[in-house]
Design goal:
about 260 residues; two-stranded antiparallel sheet; alpha+beta; Beta-lactamase; about 30% helix; single chain
């Protein structure tokens, strides 16, 4: 785990009435200050779920497996069947066709990224995971699914450190061009007050509860802030973009954004 010697402050989110077990960290690059709620959860490693689409995109682009954000992979319904129960649900109903890297990131299309990981291959994937220092760096459960409630685990604090380096263009082994392309994928919302970049993740990794993530960074009038949030609880966390809404509420509470 990472040891932190920088400025630290506690976040109080009790007034936000969050019905899930919550951990969150925000890092203010300008002041070198970490803000955290639930320190223990921030230190605990969990499956990254679809937040791994950020490093998967980085590695795919850097290795040349993906040539650009417009790179198309055709959909193979035999290789990647979609559960009939999900066929008419969001976002799955959009998955059963060819995807570009940009559309696959936006739709969190699992089959596209499984295919990317296969094309990267175990050796290269392991090499770049080591370069990133990504969580426990364990991809032993399968090259195309280790991030889906599999062997790799990462904490909120570790997500923050990687995202900080991503924002500052300081990721070892990755070009500025690759990093800029991934940042462009992450742009979620742009207003006159801020630009929000991020990726959600969700996994039903336990019998009776689920893990939900939102990680990224926000460009504000007072400088960039890096954030990582996860929730543990029922699937209700998926409703109405709750993970994103909660993150924005916390950023607003800290005085970092206005909306």
């Amino acid at each position: 785990m990472i040891a932190f010697a920088q400025n630290q402050e506690e976040i109080d989110i009790e007034d936000l009435t969050v019905p899930f077990q919550t951990g969150v960290a925000v890092y203010d690059i300008a002041t070198n200050t970490y803000y955290r709620y639930n320190t223990e959860q921030c230190e605990t490693r969990f499956s990254p779920a679809s937040t791994f689409k950020i490093p998967n995109s980085l590695i795919g682009l850097q290795t040349g497996v993906l040539t650009d954000t417009t790179f198309i992979i055709e959909y193979d319904s035999i290789k990647y069947p979609i559960d009939p129960e999900d066929a008419n649900k969001e976002p799955y109903k959009h998955w059963n066709k060819a995807q570009s890297l940009r559309s696959a990131f936006k739709l969190s299309c699992v089959w596209y990224y499984r295919e990317v990981a296969k094309r990267i291959g175990e050796e290269e994937m392991r090499r770049y995971i080591d370069k990133l220092g990504y969580g426990n760096k364990d991809i032993s459960s399968g090259t195309d699914n280790f991030w889906l409630c599999g062997s790799i685990k990462i904490s909120i604090n570790e997500q923050i450190e990687i995202l900080k380096k991503l924002y500052l263009n300081m990721l070892d082994g990755f070009s500025r061009e690759t990093i800029d392309k991934v940042k462009s994928l992450m742009l979620y919302e742009s207003t006159e007050n801020y630009k929000l970049y991020g990726k959600t993740g969700y996994g039903n990794c336990w019998k009776d509860k689920n893990i939900g993530w939102y990680v990224g960074f926000v460009e504000t009038k007072t400088g960039p802030k890096v954030f990582a949030l996860n929730l543990i609880g029922s699937s209700d966390m998926l409703k109405d973009n709750f993970r994103i809404v909660l993150t924005k509420r916390i950023l607003k509470k800290l005085g970092f954004i206005e909306y």
